[in-house]
């Protein structure tokens, strides 16, 4: 019997529950019919006003549905700035989630607002900072004090960001985000795509009420993606524009890829890899200033300050950085003035489009700088780019044991082709390493002073060199020339005039003085004056060297200097000669006719000798008793063989 009673009790409870559920379901089913479209529209509109402070324009209908949850759908919602401008916010539809219990009593309360396919802007104006097309403010008005504010959600939205450059807008797509209010504070989190790069972002504002009064409010921002991470935590103020200050950190595995997000292409093909930056940031409506900067780019660590601002309608980047050491070798990769095969000047086009992207003024100081094979220490320099003109100015640099001051500039010339200008002054530098690195010739040693200024224009390196013009002055003292002993050659030719051309590649000539003055025109270096001398010999040179073809065509006169103790009236011995061939493998030929005239035994046969030389065969001069087999071999060789010899 107790079992029957219990079973009957359970049946009554089950039937009661089913009846209640049926009544509830029936009520929910017929409830939308008791809430008019206008009531739903008014409730959603009040919620939008409370959340944003702006009266919405609802161009479509409003429909309440209960299943699977109570929602009011609004079509064609727009929110105006109120300044007569175009709407700053529009959404394909807005879903207003309705609280169920108040709805059962006929009261429509909104718990969240979801904007589907919205389009809005974030920008900094003179009158203040505008986000989502709306002033930032905490929800107020039109809701009870004990009613929590509606949460805002964005689904598949597009955002247009206008920042420091009003002429450029960044577009963010596939925006999914949520915005929540806690008192007067606001937090937001979401994901989006920036130039097809997926990113996550969170930010929070501590007090939007104080913010809208023009006072400071705490602010946090974090951005995270595959290539870029950024974080800021400080204060912001909205008063005639946006101001922010606080610690900023940026970390990217590839600065080159990060710059591509804002369509900035670095000037060089190499470098611009890993970047880590920490600084104290200060943002104004027209500038971003970074102080106490700690920067690590491509392994180069430096400290200083950085500024970004708008000036005369262009973006200007300014920086002052100092480091213990810097390796700029990655930035010259891909830059070659010579063809990789034969070493001739490159015909690859020089592109200047990157020079017009923005302006910058970078000032650098470092205890040591490495660029390829060239090392300089210390260095104080500036790098500027303005109006499509790029320039590097070196105030002082220790290079090749000496001091360098100079400037190099490249930009668009009168015809639109690149125009390059270089001027420099180097004092007390190492000739062997300096000239070796400049033109690849390592035959001269000693300390020297070099002063030059050249310029040339053209679409590629070969054209620039072909049009090169300018000047070069070189002076040196107490050095040597490797590959020949000029004094021994002169003494041998004095004893045996027909002993043949001297051999280059062996021997060494010391000098007390070396000087050269060159005038450069159309890719040719005209030697106006050149002299090498010591107490025993003197050499003078003139002629030209082709920079385009990298070869010599020089004439000179070498003279033996008689000691002061020599017999008065003894004539000096001198020999005219020519220097021809490439820069790396030149050959020297004494004047054959002058040597024949000095050879008494060969004088009667001068005419046949000249005839043989014109036929490419050296004259068969008598062999002196002092002549060696090696001398005879050289003397009997052809000019080509002598040059090879």
Structure description:
Among the domains are: 153 residues, no CATH class; 108 residues, no CATH class. It contains 12 helices and 33 strands. The chain has a 33-stranded mixed β-sheet that branches. The longest helix has 33 residues. The C terminus is likely disordered.
Entry summary:
Helices cover 18% and strands 48% of the residues. The protein is of the alpha+beta class and 645 residues long. The protein has a 33-stranded mixed β-sheet that branches.
For the structure shown, list the relevant keywords.
single chain; 645 residues; alpha+beta; 33-stranded mixed beta sheet; 18% helix; disordered C terminus
Topology:
Layout: H1 2-34, H2 37-52, E1 56-58, E2 62-65, E3 71-79, E4 89-98, H3 100-104, E5 110-116, E6 119-125, E7 128-130, E8 151-162, E9 170-182, E10 185-194, E11 197-205, H4 208-212, E12 217-225, E13 228-238, E14 242-252, H5 255-260, E15 275-284, E16 287-297, E17 300-311, E18 314-323, E19 326-327, E20 359-366, E21 369-371, E22 374-386, E23 389-399, E24 402-412, E25 418-430, H6 431-439, E26 444-457, H7 461-466, E27 469-482, H8 486-495, E28 508-521, E29 524-533, E30 537-546, E31 551-560, E32 574-582, E33 586-590, H9 592-598, H10 606-614, H11 629-635, H12 639-644
Parallel strand pairs: 5-8, 6-8, 18-20, 19-21
Antiparallel strand pairs: 1-3, 2-3, 3-4, 4-5, 4-6, 6-7, 8-9, 9-10, 10-11, 11-12, 12-13, 13-14, 14-15, 15-16, 16-17, 17-18, 20-22, 21-22, 22-23, 23-24, 24-25, 25-26, 26-27, 27-28, 28-29, 29-30, 30-31, 31-32, 32-33
């Amino acid at each position: 019997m107790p079992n029957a009673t219990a079973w009957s009790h359970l049946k009554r409870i089950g039937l009661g529950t089913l009846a209640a559920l049926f009544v509830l379901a029936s009520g929910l089913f017929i409830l939308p019919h008791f809430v008019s479209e206008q009531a739903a529209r008014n409730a959603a509109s009040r919620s939008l006003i409370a959340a944003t402070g702006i009266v919405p324009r609802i161009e479509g209908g409003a429909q309440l549905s209960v299943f699977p949850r109570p929602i009011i759908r609004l079509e064609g919602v727009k929110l105006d700035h109120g300044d007569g401008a175009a709407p700053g916010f529009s959404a394909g539809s807005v879903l207003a989630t309705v609280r169920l219990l108040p709805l059962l009593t006929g009261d429509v309360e909104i718990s969240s607002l979801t904007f589907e396919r919205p389009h809005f802007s974030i920008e900094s104006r003179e009158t203040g900072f505008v986000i989502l097309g709306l002033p930032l403010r905490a929800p107020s008005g039109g809701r009870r004090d004990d009613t929590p504010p509606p949460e805002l959600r964005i689904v598949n939205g597009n955002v247009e960001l206008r920042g420091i450059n009003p002429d450029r807008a960044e577009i963010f797509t596939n925006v999914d985000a949520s915005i929540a209010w806690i008192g007067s504070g606001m937090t937001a989190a979401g994901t989006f795509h920036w130039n097809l790069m997926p990113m996550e972002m969170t930010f929070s504002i501590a007090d939007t009420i104080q913010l809208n009064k023009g006072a400071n409010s705490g602010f946090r921002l974090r951005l995270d993606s595959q290539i870029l991470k950024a974080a800021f935590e400080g204060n912001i103020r909205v008063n005639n524009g946006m101001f922010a200050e606080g610690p900023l950190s940026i970390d990217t595995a590839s600065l080159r890829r990060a710059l591509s997000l804002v369509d900035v292409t670095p000037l060089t093909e190499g470098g611009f890899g890993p970047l880590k930056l920490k600084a104290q940031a200060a943002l104004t409506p027209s500038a971003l200033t970074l102080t106490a900067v700690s920067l690590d780019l491509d392994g180069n660590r430096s400290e200083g300050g950085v500024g970004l601002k708008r000036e005369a309608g262009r973006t200007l980047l300014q920086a002052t950085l100092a480091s213990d050491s810097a390796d700029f070798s990655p930035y010259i990769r891909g830059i070659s003035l010579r063809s990789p095969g034969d070493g001739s000047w490159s015909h690859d086009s020089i592109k200047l489009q990157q020079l017009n992207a923005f302006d910058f003024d970078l000032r650098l100081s470092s205890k040591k700088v490495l660029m390829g094979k060239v090392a300089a220490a210390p260095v104080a320099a500036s790098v500027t780019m303005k109006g499509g003109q790029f320039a590097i100015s070196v105030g002082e640099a220790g290079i090749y044991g000496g001091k360098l001051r100079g400037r190099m500039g490249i930009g668009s010339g009168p015809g639109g082709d690149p125009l390059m200008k270089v001027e420099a002054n180097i004092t007390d530098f190492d000739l062997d390493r300096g000239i070796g690195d400049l033109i690849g010739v390592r035959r001269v040693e000693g300390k020297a002073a070099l002063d030059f200024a050249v310029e040339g224009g053209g679409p590629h390196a070969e054209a620039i060199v072909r049009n090169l013009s300018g000047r070069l002055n070189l002076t040196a003292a107490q050095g040597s020339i490797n590959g020949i002993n000029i004094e021994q050659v002169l003494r041998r030719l004095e004893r045996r005039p027909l002993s043949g051309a001297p051999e280059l590649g062996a021997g060494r000539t010391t000098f007390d003085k070396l000087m050269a003055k060159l005038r450069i025109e159309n890719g040719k270096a005209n030697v106006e004056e050149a002299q090498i001398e010591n107490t025993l010999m003197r050499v003078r040179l003139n002629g030209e060297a082709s920079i385009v073809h990298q070869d010599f065509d020089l004439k000179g006169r070498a003279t033996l200097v008689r000691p002061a103790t020599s017999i008065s009236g003894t004539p000096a011995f001198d020999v005219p000669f020519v220097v021809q061939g490439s820069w790396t493998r030149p050959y020297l030929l004494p004047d054959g006719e002058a040597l024949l005239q000095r050879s008494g035994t060969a004088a009667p046969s001068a005419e046949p000798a000249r005839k043989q030389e014109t036929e490419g065969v050296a004259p068969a001069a008598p062999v002196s008793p002092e002549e060696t087999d090696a001398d005879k071999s050289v003397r009997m060789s052809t000019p080509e063989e002598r040059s090879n010899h």
